[in-house]
Amino acid sequence: MKRPSLSVSIAAGLVAGLALGLIAASTGLPWLTAFAIGIEPAGTIWMNLVRMCVLPLVFTALVSGVAAIGDVRRLGRVGVRTLGLMMATILLAGITGLALANLLLPLAPVSPESAAALRAAASATAQQVTEQTGRILGFRQFLLDLVPPNPVKAMADGTLLPVIMFSVLLGAAVGSLADELRARIVGLMDAFVAALIRLVGWIMLLAPIGVACLAAPVAARFGWETIRSLGVFVLTVVIGTTLFAVVVFGALARWRARVPLAPFARAITPGVAVAFTTATSMAALPAMMDTALNKLKISKAIAGFVLPLGATLNRPGSALYQMAAVVTVASLYGVHLGPVQYGAALMTSFLMTFSVAAIPSATVFTTAPVLLAAGLPAEAIGLLLGVDRIPDMFRTGLHAVSHQTCAAVVARAEGEEIAL
Questions:
Q1: What is the pLDDT of residues 359-398, one digit of tens each?
Q2: Using one digit for the tens of pLDDT, what is the confidence trace for 7-27?
């Protein structure tokens, strides 16, 4: 009997975990609820196994990839293509979220009683909102933190963007060395990448169990009532991210990367599944690297540069979410927004997607400056926290689609053939 694929196994784990949690939430049985929540540490251990590979993989893959590019002019060309594609899709995603929210939210107007209840719920999280938004980097600090005074400390702290900056610069320096020295360092980095991908392959065998243990406690805690409380907003994000993945990135894959859509979708599914279920594209980076190198046969130079950079900077799902949140909060507070407010929010959202901190529900907290730019109260993000898990999963799944599609498009633009 043929063994089910990793993607099918992960999906089965997700469904099993959600079913367990929802049954516990709907029946209210104490022992079942305790079990559904009690298995969370097993999921956390699996997540930690994946995360422990991320920083070493980012460093070694970037040094190897940038060094393999060699020519500084080609490095600049690849960088411009990568960042240009990311910026364009982020802006388009923000516009999509704005348009879709304005289309769907009027179908479910908020009653005064519901709005009052939601505001009361938001006030309960006011202190947390204040603490977390205070940790959001300003643009000036974001630029200062790009260059780490101590790259080893940056790695230890898990601050990925400075690590990427150091890795790119080191890779460029390695690429400028004499052929013999460059070959030695690149060979060492490639060996590390291969070993890390092998390790990740072993860890991914546990993915269905890990995903189930992460999904069950979420469903048990929130249940159907909380999921429905801001249902239209959640639905907007779900529809928007799904359509954006299928239409925009499908078109890019078909017409720019020139790959058949069905095989490409199957190839990138493992990385998308990990991102979706864990709500962090960093956890999915090893799976995406494995897909790019071993299934799509993208060169290590392109994959090692585009994917780590994308996992750090490329967040079209966050832009879509934030603009949908602007329309939702305006509706709840009865505020009419015009083109000027929408434009200010869109530009702020575009900038904030590049400085999302590594904190829980980071996109929600970085929505505060976006709301302020539109003249809305920042504490309203407390309304979005209770139902963030579902939008977080979908926007992170979109990020994984974006990273892998971007790698394929850039590889094709550099004259590479994609094995599909």
A1: 445 677 677 778 877 877 766 665 665 567 778 889 889 9
A2: 677 778 878 887 898 898 888
Q: In angstroms, what CA-CA distances link 307 with 179, 335, 410, 415, 418? A: 26, 40, 11, 18, 16
Query: How far apart (Å, rounded) are the C-alpha atoms in residues 61 and 369?
Result: 34
Give pairs for 50-56: CB < 8 Å, separation 24+.
Answer: 50/200, 50/203, 50/274, 50/278, 50/283, 50/286, 51/282, 51/283, 53/196, 53/199, 53/200, 53/203, 53/286, 54/160, 54/282, 54/283, 54/285, 54/286, 55/155, 55/158, 55/160, 55/163, 56/192, 56/196
Tokens of 168: 């790119």
Q: Tokens 């630029």 label which residue?
A: 143
Residue 270: which of 406, 86, 400 has the closest Cα? 400
Q: Where are the domains positioned within the chain? A: 6-413
Task: Tell me the torsion sign for CA atoms 152, 154, 158, 160.
Answer: negative
C-alpha 361/C-alpha 80 separation (Å) is 30
Give residues with Cβ within 8 angstroms of 71, minimum separation 6. Answer: 175
Task: Provide the pLDDT confidence category of residue 222 given band limits of 50, 70 and 90.
Answer: low
Residues 6+ apart with CB under 8 A from 278: 47, 50, 211, 214, 284, 396
| CATH number assigned to the domain covering 6-413 | 1.10.3860.10
Alpha helices in 145-252 (DSSP H): 151-157, 160-175, 179-204, 207-229, 231-243, 250-251
Per-residue pLDDT of 327-371, as tens digits, reads 888 877 767 788 888 888 888 788 777 655 444 456 776 777 788
Q: What angle do CA 281, 282, 286 make, to 5 degrees?
A: 100
Among 169, 161, 204, which Cα is nearest to 353's? 161
Confidence of residue 229 (pLDDT cuts 50, 70, 90): very low
d(CA 350, CA 69): 29
CB 259 within 8 A of CB 407: no
**Kind and range of the H or E element at 58?**
helix 40-69
